[in-house]
Amino acid sequence: MRQATVGLIAVAALLSACAGTPAALRPQAVQAAVSKTEGYLSGPLIQALADAVPPPPIAGSATDLADKSRSARFVTLEDSDRWLLATAHAELRPPLALQHFDCALGLRLGSATTPNLNRLMQRLFHDSDAAAELAKERGFRPRPVGDDPERRACQRVNDAGRKGASYPSGSSTVATVYGEAFAALEPQSATDARRIAREVGLSRLVCGMHYPSDVAVGEVLGKAVFEAAVATPVFEADLAAARSEVAAVRATGLTNPGCASERLALTTPLP
Length: 271
What we know:
The chain has helices at 2-15, 27-34, 43-51, 62-73, 81-89, 102-105, 115-136, 144-147, 159-162, 170-185, 190-206, 212-230, 235-252, 259-265.
């Protein structure tokens, strides 16, 4: 009971960065302002990145069986601190998702005070999510919660969600792109930013929404998407504008009050 209570505190604290903020500055209030932002990459380039993703493991293959064996062991984490942190990680839309990196960077992110950062990440979200969805169309692999209808997910998931494609992990793709972007914004924090990006991907294993190889391939795709975005003419200008905002946020000295709880949750050994 104590562990679950601590986990609930962790999730609540991590999301509280918007709770005490004026409504006009909360992530929910600025989501509409960035949700229609287009990405950096053209449709054909996104399709080419998706086409480069290898097909999912064949059912019954050594990789598939190893994936399913390890995935089954994650059931032991249900209702743990790490399980509850994974419920927060399920939100990947900017600007709210940027708070996943608060503790790694020692900042307080995810509000209307960083419009350039929000736009940068929304464009990257657009491209990475689109590439992952196109890759999923090339070969269907059921999710763990689809293979086992009785398995609990750490997020609200309907029948369509359970029956969705698992490979590659779009969440891992998006999280990896975010991690690479924060590494570019603050090179001194690159290791920590990439570590949290990987933890977000691992959360999808905890949730039973993806298999290990889905997450691993999602990471590869995310890095490819980011490299392609970096090569576009407008990316550097957007990065510079976002870097100025991040520096201003750092100067405020504000941090996320949930970081101690996050650190505790991340000490949970993974199976």
